[in-house]
Records
---
Amino acid sequence: MNSNNNNDNKNTTTEKPLIILTAGGTGGHVYPAEALAQELKARGYRLALVTDKRGKNNYHGALGEMPNFSVLSGALVGKDILFKLQSACKLALGILQSMYIIWKEKPACVIGFGGYASFPCAFAAALMGKELIIHEQNSVMSRTNRFLSKYASMIAESFSQTKYAPSNIKTVLTGMPVRENILKLHENDYRRLPQDKFQLLILGGSQGAKIFSSVLPNAIAHLDKEKQQKLKIYQQCRADDIEDLNAAYKGCELDITISPFFADMAQIYAGTHLIISRAGASSVSEIEAAGIPAILVPLPTAADDHQTGNAIDLAKENGCILVKQEHFTAMDMSKLISELMDDGERRTALSENAKKAAKTDAAIRFADAIEELIKQPKEQAGSNV
């Protein structure tokens, strides 16, 4: 068990207790944890982070500044029987490590954000009778959260009527907490963007979408030269695909930046005219908050097709354009991109409708619910709100 205490975050002038956050390492788990941490820290709470080594390396900002602990963890889905046995052993040890951390640190509650790296600490909290709060990012509850929710004192939901959420556990519709620097973009007027350039942002999710790397260069190549020259593209992809992707765009006359990760997302969002993205919960919520016209292409293999569920309500409100992957072809995308580049009114409408769908106070709602829960006796938790 490793501890990295960059800033012990202890405030001797406050009596507010410690809260432990636990999360996996991908953006869908990291970003809401980061947003909530900012809000709780502003309210004077002491915070600590528990995750695995893989996840810990992804944390920056408020999460990177707080005391953090890494414990063993492992996924039990897929792979062969030997892999599953090794993972089970890691999980058991990770639960014991987490129980020691909880015993030593004495938190008021543990908040789990999903991902298998969050399981050991969340389950340890349940075993030790600590208040366990689960945040579900997606419209369909993940398998990890489905199991843990049976032991939770409260479930915070990003979407109303989350599929597989238990009916006998207290639930609060908080929305998806979004990082503060992205929330600030909500006040920007989309029409202020310059018209001489057209910034296109392409996001493939935590793993990078390989189909984006194969389809979109062909789609851009079919645009007329005038539109190509107007484009400024930021495309996120897997590190292994960068060389091939650069080669695929070689015949296009445009300004392009390709990277597996963009650290300055708020700045990029602020200048984006159109985004093409997977429909992970954090991506959808940030698109809504920033009011970016979006083409959402749900990952069809996502568990329980939750990405389609994440996007469908926004599409019904004309806050995005939903394209099933089976219809995601070079010619269709070239036509759609060209039409949107020419139709500023439609893009503005998409932007305004996306903003209407945003829950910009999600972190505040979540923090309020946490404070209410930890101030009441544990036996009172359990009814829906």
---
Amino acid sequence: MYKHLFLIAALCLATPALAQAPDTVFMEQLTWDELRDAIAAGKTTIIVPTGGTEQNGPHMALGKHNARVTFNANTIARRLGNALVAPTMAYVPEGSIEPPLTGHMRFPGTISLPDPVYRQVLEYAARSLKLHGFKNIVFLGDSGGNQPGQTAVAATLNAEWAGSDVRVHTFFNYYRGDTEGDAALMMQRGIRKDEIGDHADVRDTSLLLATAPGMVRMDKLQAGDGKNGVVGDPRHASAEIGRALVEKTVTRTVKEIRESIAKR
């Protein structure tokens, strides 16, 4: 009797569990057949996040944009309900490599693509996604240098695909859609106007504290001095401010994506 029970138990342990697709919106975490089934079930919107690998002052890690846009894309896709997220593009235009160095390329760790190369990567990512059945391809750029290429590629592909059921969308407002409103929100929480700069400042740092706090070195916060890569002053940044800014951005972007898709 015990021998039979042992055999039954062994067979149960050896039987693989029924496969279930993971609870994720990230395409790269799915198998090809799970992705096929998700598209067939109506997940035909795909977000293509573009970040960047660049200096962010002494206090923030080089992958700030990648972490932030990936976090936000996840939230946006889940709120849309019918969307997935493509792998984040970590290499974008950041300045010239050949002397004289420009932009963030003056600091170690920054990686830059020439704009034509960046545009071609975007284009062929979109062409691949169209081939596999996505109907709405959303470029979500987390850095200023990403925007012109996204706008140009979207226009080119939409012209080529006119009359089809596929469309490319891009949203500058995701990146800096309400600078005055963001400043007002921060100032209501005790931030002085002179602390709000353009890079690695209180806004930038607060956003990362809300999305990837382990990438911020709180003991290295310092105001910009013209040499440290900071424009502004991050010393009063907080996760609470960052969460409020993220919520504004996500809510606005979900609304704009829905409206853009509805115009088709």
---
Amino acid sequence: MEYRDEATGQTVRANLPFQSMETVQDWRWRQDVKIPITVTTYDANYYLLGDKKIPKNEETPALSGYENDLLQSLGLSPESYRLTRYAWDGEPYTKDGELCRNAVVYGERYVIQCQAVFAGDVSLPDVQKETYRGIAAYAATADLPTGETEYQVEGIVTYKALDQSKLSVPVLVLSVGAAVVIVAALFILAVLAKRWKKQKNQT
């Protein structure tokens, strides 16, 4: 059988061992047999079926009484198949210079309907997970009230995600962390600027 793994999108073939069987419908004759045959040398008075001569009949193939011979020529068992009706299938035609005509044999077969259960484990192929590595840089500019100096703070963060399903978590956390670093840096620079301005006024 074929099994499709939705997680990876792959389809694998698996051999499942037989587990159990139960009968759905008991033995019965089913009318679903339809066997095509071709009569060659159609313009002859007799046709050969093995060593039997079958007389020509324009209305219907004259196979009644020759059922076992016909089943034997088809390799079918009379215990499992029985033939019930014969009919010509179209008009005579010429093939390779010989007059032919197609016919159809209808019948029944002795069958039982069962339901079998096969079960087992399916081994999925190894899937190599992709890894990602990226560098995210965050920068901010602060205008401090000194009138003389402009400070720029840059925070660089490196992250590594094992696969795509985990990629969104570290990005979110690192983005927030980087923002916290920037805010903290701006706060520290603001404090240093005030101290520097105070020391400048005292001198």
---
Amino acid sequence: MSPLSSNAPHGRPPLRTVQVLGGGNAGGSAHVRSLSAGLVARGVRVTVCAPVEADRAYDFAGTGAGHVHVPRSSDPASVAALRAVCADADLVHAHGLHASFRAVLALGGRTTPLVVTWHNRAYAEGARAHLMRLLERRVARAATVVLGTSPDLVDRARRTGARDARLAAVTLPRRPPTAPDDPDRLRPKARAELGATERPLLLAAGPLDRHRGHETLLDAARAWRDLDPAPLVVVAGEGPLRPLLQRRIETERLPVRLLGHREDLPELLAAADLALLTSRWESRSVLAQEALHAGVPLVATRVGGIPHLVGDAAELVPYGDPSALADTVGRLLVDPSRRDLLRERGARQAAGWPTEDETVAQVLSVYDELTQPMIL
């Protein structure tokens, strides 16, 4: 099948694929929905195996794909349910480490090609970290092809034993259109609601966990108290560190607000002067992509796939270095020409990222390679 064809040529039946998703990663779920829509539009039969909660959130069935509820668990019942769905598949494509491990168990030595996409890294400590390494090795060696969403994930797959590891083309899926209001008109209202009418607004977003660097962000915010006017930092996200972070904000009188879970990241970015990404590791950060698309200057940690993603379109700082973060933000706030340059570079960098069509075409080319009968 040609990657861009919509019908199976030469009388071949449509390619039957199963997409296996754990449902715990928003980026992976959005990617599977986008991929499913593109594959179905090109005549591929798609069945998404994912928890029912993921289907409610991402409406895989709305793309024309089938959906089968498979819990995130790797217990025998879940594996058996997945095995039944994969029995007639021409190819299985699993997304994320745990979903990929379930797919390996379900295929159980069958010759069905298995494509695995690693969207991120699994963090763990102690005995669990050892278990994660074992799972990675098992998956990497069992997969026919491993697709990594950043160069360091491709290198990790190769070191772990993958026989074929490649860089994945992954786009930021298009958001559905929202209200037709003018963002420039809404910006003052959004800033007023956040409490930043006459002061710079800095936006961070992501789960409030130990790997996102929010404590470093609070350390840097101590230095920003002395700026005139002092910027306001708003953090969109929820997680286990919220009580600790909130206590620090109140005790140290930091100019920081925790907004909790938000669904309006584009609107928050439209109101922001700078976007901040302080994570320990990221592959294709949604915040980084949205910021560059929106023309918001970005300060991010130099980790994982971030340098490859943003190129020269962001200010990069070391992870866990509050002084570097504070100084870089302080310089940007008083340098409008540098901010304008980052906006220009951001638009150019974002224009070079894969489109949804290009992402689907790359995946289909891999599928074709693994399923086309060999011509002697």
